[in-house]
Amino acid sequence: MEKFIKLVEEKIGYNFSNKCLLEQAFIRKSYSSENGGENNEVLEFIGDKALDNAVIKLMMDRYGKLLSYGDKTYFHTEFDEGVFTNIKMNLVDKTYLANAIEKLGFKDYLILNEGDISQNIQDEPSVKEDLFEAILGAVTLDSGWDFKVIVRVVERMLDITADFDFEELIEDKNSNFVALVQEYSQGYFNKVPDYEYESNEDKNSFIAKLYIDGKYISSGEGLSKPKARKEAALKGYGLIKDRDKGINKYEKEVGKPSLENAIQQVNELEQKKLINKPTYEYTDNLDALGEDKRWGCFCIIYEASQSFYAYGKTKQDAKRIASYLALEDLMN
Predicted confidence band at 289 (pLDDT cuts at 50, 70, 90)? Predict the structure, then answer.
C-alpha cells in the first residue's frame, strides 16, 4: 500500500498529509458494501465540482484578463459564453478523463469486490472517470480546499497542452469539424467520439483515427495530436454527411432505437410533432410457463405499419419493449 500511495503522489504532484483519503479514492462502493468501511462515492462528487472550477480558472488565465479604464478595472475576454462552454465540455468529458486515468496507470489499483473484478469493471470509462474525480476530491479535502493546489493537480493529471488545440475549440462552429463530429456522435449515439493516436516517426508527425460508436470512420495526420484530430474530423464529417442522406427523419431526431430509452424516444418524436400521440393498451397475462405473473402491452403508433405487442415483468418493462419494436419499424 505504501508503494502504491507514493506512486500516485509522484504522478499527480501532491503529497497527502492524510494518506487514508487517497486510499479511499480507490475504494468502490461495491467493495465497501460487502466489507465495510468508506468508499469513494462522495469524493467523486467533491472532485467533480472542484474540476469544474479548476478548468474554468485555466480557461480564464488563458483567454481573459483584467483591464483598467481610467480608475476602473474590469474583466475582459474576446470570447462569449458559448465558446467557453465548448472548451469546458471537452476538458471535463468522460472519455478524456478516462483516458487520463489510463495514461496514469491508476485503474489497476482500484479496490473492487469479486463481482466487479470478474466483469473487468475497471476498464469501463465511467469507472475511470469516477476514479479521476475521486482522486481530485481527496486532494481537495486534504489540501483544505486550497484552490491553487487543486488547479496544479488538474494540470498535472490532464495533459491539456498536448491534447487540445484551444484555438481549434474557439473556431466558428460551422468550420470546427471536431465540434460538428462530436455533436453528431452525441446526438445519434449519446456518446462522444473516440480518437486513437499513433506516432509517425519518419515524418515526425501524429496519425489520429476517428471512431464513432466503436466503429472506425476516418484518419488524419498532423504535426501535433490536435492537428491530426482536426484532419480526421474534417474527413470523417464528410463521410457522416453522406451517410445522413440514408437516415430517415425519425432517426435523425432521436438517434437509433434504444431499448433502454425507447419510451423517451417515442415521447420526443411526439413532442416534435413527427408522430401522433401513441396509445398503450395493457393485458394481464401469465408467461409461457405459467409461473410468474407478467404484463403485456400494445404500442399503437399511427405512423407505424402495425401495432406492436410485448411482454414484461412490469407494465413499464412491457411498454418499453413494445415502444422499442415500434421504433424499429418506424426507422426500418
Answer: very low
